[in-house]
Every structure is written in structure tokens, then in C-alpha cells.
Design brief:
With 568 residues, the protein is of the alpha+beta class. The protein contains 14 helices and 28 strands. It binds flavin-adenine dinucleotide. InterPro entries: FAD/NAD-bd_sf (IPR036188), GMC_OxRdtase (IPR012132), GMC_OxRdtase_N (IPR000172), GMC_OxRtase_C (IPR007867).
Length: 568
């Protein structure tokens, strides 16, 4: 049996490309033309959703089945249905974001997490990570909604590093080098910043994905940029020729409102006769012919009823780095020992769910800025009602910002600075990330700033496994953060860079100083020593929400690969 993983080139991940062998790409698995002659199965009543998509009516004559309507699935459905002769059916476990007006307001992004649009998954506890989280389990938000995780996302528009793409190609994945994928970035992009758009080699204004500069910038963000310039960092477009440097954020925001990938790509496709959606449809497993050589259909649960459909044509699995292995494992495609332990008949022994990589990062290092002036997004001082009023009536104010107002790609002492292949990403927050009550309570009503520091290419590898055969049971997420001590040391070094920035004249002018309350659990260690930072990281570092790698792409001789470079 062969099958295809399709990786969509919107961007590898918001924290840049993550790994040397498989990066933050959307994961989509396509089972190639295994269909049998189609039997029409009517499982719904034709109607249109609020945004005009045609609802699932019948699978008769469908050429492409897409399982998972997140970032990857939305783009595929949109692009495949551009050909009027191709009938596309998209099955999505969640509902439609247009039902939630909050989804429009950039600053309220985090309210969507832990809502019905979120699978609300958590990682399994480990000894050396997520120690300050409830039951030592880190939150792993994932979109369960049309648009998938892009509907919950922070809207940051960044691309992967050229070298990551080139490395994929060098590893035998033909067609994945940067020059080959760049045209797809351009095809997707609608950059509303005319200065950036003028650089036609790297930007375009012709695509569906609007990218713009948020209308609001906190004065503290300008201090951050000035501090970078003072230290000799480049201020540049990090999505162009070079990545190392600092940039005011560009976001997937259109006319001041959040733009999920579903809105961007399925919006223009709404009303097409050849594109049908079936929402609230949880794909449970693939069905095979008796010889187990062909996929002939799918089982799914819709509104509490288990349905099965015979499928003809392409079957595309685009359920994300957690959902995709979930479907494959339940279908009998995965590590034989794990499937046997779960009493699932093995269809194909493959390393599905292995090679899990996630961006680990920390947002808790906070600096006080008592002399900062002007209002600030992401601050307790913001008068929420006034800001919402300003947003609704004028499309202005701090509600137009996600709270992350600048990003930077920087080299730790472990990176080769001559290479333009930075190993850290910073996200600047002109406020605080108030998670632990005891620790953060003294910070309330104080002016402050923080940097989320993210490790871009972790060496640690985790795994996704089934908890049980039950399709509704949570999956087991074993991230194994900091299994490689180098991952920890790179992040330790990131504090040195943050502290250096905080000591520039730009930050001195706002009275910047580090918040000095020792983090609970690390009180015994000398404050801001390397050992303190190691402890701080093991307690407070968190997923930065970019899991990848669980259906790895690679050539035939790569025993860790699940699919080839054509994603089959
Ligand atoms: C909180 C958060 C913030 C983020 N911020 C940013 C950002 O600012 N910038 C950025 O570039 N990236 C960001 N990301 C990452 C980005 O959203 C993901 O990399 C991207 O959405 C992955 O695309 P995907 O299609 O692989 O998966 P997803 O977008 O997660 O889509 C998978 C879809 O499959 C569906 N699904 C899963 N299982 C099944 C099943 N069994 N049956 C049917 N449907 C199923 C899900 O409901 C979901 O809709 C963020 C992610 C999160 C969670």
C-alpha cells in the first residue's frame, strides 16, 4: 500500500521552521485512488452554512475526500474545487467559526482556547517539563473548528528558514527546497504593507491570505525595536532574503479582523456546487478492501450517529499533527507493537506518531517598566470596554493587536551566526502573561513587558499514541521536552539575550528591570543563575503550539518516514 502526505505551504509554523528533517508543515495524508465504484450514500440534507458553504449531501461522484478542515484541509478544499470537474467533500470534526463573533477580534484570540472550538488536549506528565502546570500536563490547544488551529491562532505571519526547506530536499525530498516552495507562499499571500509588497521576489498581493500590520503598536514595542537596533541587530523583513533580525509583527488580519485559513481560502470557494462540507463529523477510521491493499471508505460519527461511506477517488487526511496519527493508528497503520497492544489489526507497520516535535518556549520572564508611557495591549491597565468600543466603531485601538507586537529571530551562543539559521525566536509582549496567580499577583497594575522565547529546532523527539481503541478517547501526547539537554541550554542562553536587551538605553529610559520574585519551585537557586533558569524552564516552559512530524516525509531508505516526498 502506498499513500501520500500532502504538506501545504502556507508557512511551516509561526515560530519559523522547527526541525531539520520534518518541520512545522501542516500534515495531510492522501490515499491515492484506492476507490471502488461509488455507491451513493445520502447522509445529510443539502443546505448552506451561515457563510454559504454547501453542506454535505451525498458522496455520489466525489473525487476528493478531505478529512480535517484546518489550515491544510481548507486550502486543499479551496484549490481542488477550483476545477469545476472535481467534486470535493470535506469532513471536519468541529463546527464553523462564523458562529462565534469573538473569533473576529484579534486581541481576544486566547478566549477561543478552551472553548468548544478547542480539542482541549494536554500532554502527558514527565519528570523534567511542565512542572508548574496542573498535574504537570502542558496545555495543547488545537482547533476543532473549520480553519482548525488557525482559527485559534495568534495570527503571526512568518515563514520557515530557507535552510530548513533546502535540508528537506537534501534528505531526498525532491521539490521541497526553498526555491521550489516560494511560489506557493507568493500564490497564497495578499500583503497589505505596500513597502513589503514592493519586494516582489518574496511577497505578493494576489493571494487569498491577507497579511497586514496591526493598526496598534504599544510604545513599549518601539522600545523593544530600539533596544535591538542599539545592540546591533538587523531590523528587517524576516520573511524575505534573510531571517536573522527583528520585525514589527505582520499578522493574518484583514480590515482589522482576524482571518483564519478557512475564511481566507474557503470564503472565496463558498457557494461552489462542487464543494461540500460535512461539519461535526469525526472521522474514526479508514476502511479497507478484504486484502487490506486499498482504502475503500471511511467511518465517521456525525451528531452522535456512526456512519460509514464508501469512497471513490483521492482520500486526503489533513487532521493535524495529532489528529492525523489518531486516524491512521485507529485504522491499523502504525507501529505494529502498539497496534497489537491496542488489539487493532495491523494493516501496515509504519512509524506513525513517532518523531513528534514541538516548539517549546517560555513567556514568563517578565520585566518591569515603571516609566513606560501610553497605553499598551496585553496589559491589565487597558480599559477593555473602551477598547472594544473603539474596535467596533472605528476598527482601531489595542483590540486590533493579538498582544504579540514584534518578533525576532536570534542566534543563541550555540548557533553559527554567519549562517542566517537562527535557533531562537522571540515574540515581544508589551504586557505580561499572567498564568500563576501567586507569582503574578504582585505584577498586577504594574507596567511590564515580556518576551516569549521559543526553541526553533528541538532535538527532543516525542510520540503520539492511542489511549484506547475508542475513537472518542483522548490521544496520548508524550512530548519528551528537554530529553536533549541542548534544547534546555539554548533556552537558558535566550535569557542572557533578553537581559542584554533589557539593559539598553532604550529600555533604561522606561526604567526596565527584571521581575525578581523567584519562581515557585526554584527558590533555593541563585536568582537568574543558569541553574535557576534551567529550573524555571522545567517548570514554566510550555508548548508554543506547533507540533509536527508524526507522519514524516522521507525517501524509501528512511525507516523513520511514513510517506514519500509526494506525500503518498
Ligand atoms: C493556540 C495556537 C496559536 C497558533 N498561532 C499561530 C500563529 O500565530 N501563526 C502560525 O503560523 N501558526 C500558528 N499556530 C500553528 C498553526 O495554527 C498550525 O501549524 C496549523 O493550523 C496546522 O495546520 P493543520 O491543517 O496541520 O492542522 P489544524 O489546523 O489543527 O487542522 C486540523 C483539523 O482537523 C480536524 N480533525 C482532527 N481530527 C479529526 C477527525 N478525526 N475527524 C475530522 N476532523 C478532524 C480538526 O478539528 C482541525 O480542524 C498556532 C496554533 C495554535 C494551537
Amino acid at each position: 500500500m502506498s499513500f501520500i502526505v500532502f504538506s501545504y505551504v502556507w508557512k511551516p509554523c509561526h515560530n519559523s521552521s522547527q526541525t531539520s528533517d520534518f518541520s512545522c508543515f501542516t500534515q495531510v495524508v492522501i490515499f491515492k485512488k484506492y476507490g471502488v465504484s461509488g455507491r451513493a450514500v445520502v447522509v445529510g440534507v443539502a443546505n448552506r452554512t451561515a457563510s454559504g458553504f454547501k453542506h454535505h449531501n451525498s458522496i455520489f461522484g466525489v473525487h476528493a475526500f478531505i478529512f480535517g478542515g484546518g489550515s491544510g484541509g481548507s486550502v486543499l478544499a479551496s484549490r481542488l474545487s477550483e476545477d469545476p470537474d472535481v467534486r470535493v467533500l470535506l469532513l471536519e470534526a468541529g463546527s464553523n467559526e462564523v458562529e462565534e463573533p469573538l473569533a473576529e477580534i484579534p486581541a481576544l484570540t486566547s478566549f477561543l482556547q478552551r472553548s468548544d472550538f478547542d480539542w482541549k488536549t494536554k500532554s502527558e506528565p514527565g519528570d523534567g517539563f511542565c512542572l508548574a502546570m496542573s498535574k504537570k500536563r502542558c496545555s495543547w490547544p488545537r482547533g476543532k473548528v473549520l480553519g482548525g488551529s488557525s482559527t485559534l491562532g495568534n495570527m503571526i505571519y512568518t515563514r520557515g528558514n530557507k535552510k530548513d526547506f533546502d535540508k528537506w530536499a537534501q534528505m531526498g525530498n525532491t521539490g521541497w527546497d526553498f526555491e521550489s516552495v516560494l511560489p506557493y507562499f507568493l500564490k497564497s499571500e495578499d500583503n497589505r504593507n505596500r513597502f513589503k509588497a514592493a519586494d516582489k521576489k518574496f511577497h505578493s498581493q494576489d493571494g487569498y491570505l491577507t497579511v497586514s500590520d496591526p493598526a496598534f503598536k504599544s510604545p513599549l514595542t518601539l522600545s523593544f525595536m530600539a533596544s535591538a537596533a542599539e545592540m546591533g541587530y538587523q531590523i528587517r523583513d524576516v520573511n524575505a532574503e534573510n531571517q536573522t533580525g527583528f520585525m514589527l509583527i505582520q499578522s493574518t488580519i484583514r480590515d482589522g479582523r482576524r482571518l483564519s485559513i478557512a475564511k481566507a481560502f474557503l470564503g472565496p470557494a463558498s457557494g461552489k456546487e462542487n464543494l461540500q462540507l460535512s461539519l461535526n463529523s469525526l472521522v474514526t477510521k479508514l476502511r479497507f478492501n478484504s486484502k487490506k491493499t486499498k482504502v475503500i471508505g471511511v467511518s465517521y460519527v456525525k451528531n452522535g450517529t456512526t456512519l460509514s461511506a464508501r469512497a471513490k477517488g483521492e482520500i486526503i487526511i489533513s487532521a493535524g499533527a495529532v489528529g492525523t496519527p489518531g486516524i491512521l493508528l485507529r485504522s491499523g497503520i502504525g507501529p505494529a507493537d502498539h497496534l497489537e497492544a491496542m488489539k487493532i489489526p495491523v494493516v501496515r507497520d509504519a512509524p506513525v506518531g513517532k518523531n513528534l516535535q514541538d516548539h517549546i518556549g517560555i513567556c514568563a520572564m517578565t520585566f518591569l517598566a515603571p516609566n513606560a508611557r501610553g497605553s499598551s495591549s496585553n496589559s491589565n491597565e487597558t480599559d477593555l470596554r473602551a477598547e472594544i468600543f473603539k474596535f467596533l466603531n472605528h476598527g482601531k485601538g489595542s483590540m486590533t493587536s493579538s498582544g504579540i507586537e514584534a518578533i525576532a529571530f536570534v542566534n543563541s551562543k550555540f548557533a553559527d551566526a554567519s549562517e542566517d539559521f537562527p535557533d531562537l525566536q522571540f515574540q515581544f509582549i508589551p504586557g505580561g502573561v499572567h498564568v500563576w496567580k501567586k507569582w503574578f499577583t504582585p505584577l498586577r497594575s504594574k507596567r511590564q513587558w515580556a518576551v516569549c522565547s521559543t526553541l526553533l529546532r528541538p532535538e527532543s523527539r516525542g510520540e503520539i499514541r492511542l489511549k484506547s481503541r475508542n475513537s472518542k478517547a483522548d490521544l496520548i501526547i508524550l512530548p519528551n521536552y528537554f530529553n536533549s539537554s541542548k534544547d534546555l541550554e539554548i533556552l537558558v542562553d535566550s535569557f542572557r539575550i533578553m537581559f542584554n536587551l533589557s539593559q539598553t538605553a532604550a529600555f533604561a529610559s522606561v526604567g526596565s528591570s527584571p521581575y525578581e520574585m523567584p519562581f515557585p519551585g526554584c527558590e533555593e537557586l541563585a536568582l537568574f543563575s543558569d541553574d535557576y533558569f534551567r529550573c524555571f524552564l522545567r517548570h514554566a516552559a510550555q508548548s508554543m503550539h506547533d507540533p509536527v512530524g508524526t507522519a514524516k516525509m522521507g525517501p524509501k531508505n528512511d525507516s523513520t518516514a511514513v510517506v514519500d516526498s509526494k506525500l503518498r
